[in-house]
Write a structure and sequence with these properties.
CATH topology: Rossmann fold
Largest sheet: 5 strands, parallel
Shape: globular
Oligomer: single chain
Radius of gyration: 14 Å
Length: 144
């Protein structure tokens, strides 16, 4: 069972108007857990298990999508490839990459494209802080 600290719940209550996050991870368990964290923080969550599914959801979704939160290591389409496609289709969308493999993350995401990232595993407070900062300011807070 996931535990949420008072800080996480306080952050959740601070956002009265939900924003929409497109969450992409091929690991069902990881995707569901992150989805719960985001929903508790009052984000609308669109979940996809692959890059192709994320592109379909993005194309079909009529409203705004404020942020793409994508895993880097997925079969068929990597997170950076997905991010490029989504940004092309939805200019202005913010992107936050995540990975448990920092070598892959640094090589494919940050070094070449200066895209914000968060390393797995992460605390819910860290994730919510990065997302809020990106949506509000256009860039993620630095890692502590």
């Amino acid at each position: 069972m996931t535990e949420f600290s008072p800080l996480t719940l306080e952050m959740a209550a601070a956002e009265p108007n939900p924003r929409t996050v497109l969450l992409v991870d091929d690991n069902d368990y990881v995707r569901q857990m992150i989805g719960v964290i985001l929903e508790l923080a009052h984000y609308r969550v669109l979940e996809a298990g692959s890059g192709a599914q994320a592109l379909h959801i993005s194309d079909q979704h009529q409203g705004a999508i404020d942020l793409l939160l994508t895993d880097m290591q997925m079969p068929e389409m990597k997170g950076d490839e997905l991010a490029e496609e989504i940004v092309e289709r939805r200019p202005g969308i913010k992107v936050l990459c995540m990975s448990g493999d920092l070598g892959v993350l640094l090589d494919r995401c940050t070094a070449a494209k200066d895209v914000p990232f968060i390393a797995k595993p992460f605390r819910s407070e860290e994730l919510l802080g990065r997302i809020a900062s990106l949506i509000q300011n256009g860039r993620a807070k630095s890692a502590a």
